[in-house]
């Protein structure tokens, strides 16, 4: 046998199976979280509006992302904006997963989760913090939100605050519509926006 | 902390198997290797934001793994790996017996030969990098790896003939 073959045999000998590596990675995430050196934990969940990525800092939920945003790009942006100590670690996200499951099942009308608005600043952050004022099953126009936050002429800025919402679904930018009653844009796509509004209308 | 480095999860994804192969070769394919793997990535996670963007990540990880493997051995109060404890191999290499024999042969190698093979052939370090870790010259590391591979060769062959 050639030396290349010998080396290949040696590599194959120590190659772990996928389950073994997955267990090691889960253990690593748990320890990193327990020792407080993880900046961001993330996981992904299946929902009626597609797969969502959920990410949390020690302060709270920091990002909800739709698959169309590109999960790799979302994680890279989190690394650049907040920090690169990021692992898939579902433990910190258990409360958010639970509340989202209840929401999609129609049994939860408001989220009660610590939120981290680290990805937003200034007026956008101010607007996003007020979006939960639009109650489950209701909608508001960009202009109405502008009036609500005390800047009645800033409806365009309200539009960009909604478009850059780092926490869609949980912070309900899907309830904000254009002045003419049309849906307007949505980070998860117009179909997802319509689906969320339909889900809320249908809930008991 | 701001850093241009990519999400650490991707580093574990890319290099997780390589680091485990390295520590398994050094410590044997059991819990000690798993411990060294975990300690390696935990330390790497802590230092990750400060690693220069253009650093050789794999070489950096193998260097950490080297130190963690020594720590694990020291903590357990052992100096050689216990051949008798080598478990049923879960590898793709032929019948189970051959894997077991090869592990035992790796375990019997002198420490420097075993580490030179692990760091160079499995960890991708250059002989100069191996020498930085183990001491001595790059040539000495190359000879140690070659001598070790020569000793293992008969076991590779045995596996092939069967």
Q: What would CATH call the architecture of chain B? A: Up-down Bundle
Across the major sheet of chain A, the strand order is: 3-2-1-4
Main sheet properties of chain A = 4 strands, mixed
Task: State the order of secondary-structure elements of chain A, H for helix, E for strand.
Answer: HHEEEHEHHEHHEH
Low-confidence stretches of chain A: none
Shape of chain A: elongated
Looking at CATH, which topology of the domain at 122-202 in chain A would you report? Arc Repressor Mutant, subunit A
> How much strand content do the residues of chain A show?
5-15%
How many β-strands of chain A, per DSSP?
A: 6
Low-confidence stretches of chain B: 88-96
Which value, in Å, is the CA radius of gyration of chain A?
Answer: 21 Å
Based on CA atoms alone, the radius of gyration of chain B comes out at 16 Å
Molecular structure report:
The complex is a heterodimer of chains A (204) and B (162). In chain A, the strands form 2 sheets. In chain A, strands 3-2-1-4 form a 4-stranded mixed beta sheet, sandwiched between helices. In chain A, strands 5-6 form a two-stranded parallel sheet. Chain A is elongated. The mean pLDDT of chain A is 94. Chain A has 8 helices and 6 strands; from the N terminus they run H-H-E-E-E-H-E-H-H-E-H-H-E-H. Among the domains of chain A are: 1-27, no CATH class; 122-202, Orthogonal Bundle (Arc Repressor Mutant, subunit A). Chain A is an alpha/beta fold. Chain B has 162 residues and is mainly alpha-helical. Chain B has one domain (8-161): Butyryl-CoA Dehydrogenase, subunit A, domain 3 (Up-down Bundle). In chain B, 70% of the residues lie in helices and 0% in strands. Chain B contains 7 helices and no strands. In chain B, helix 1 (8-27) packs antiparallel against helix 5 (111-122), helix 2 crosses helix 3 (57-76) and helix 5 (111-122) packs across helix 7 (138-161). The N and C termini of chain B lie far apart (56 Å). At the A-B interface, helix 1, helix 2, helix 3 and strand 4 of A face helix 1, helix 2, helix 4, helix 5 and helix 7 of B.
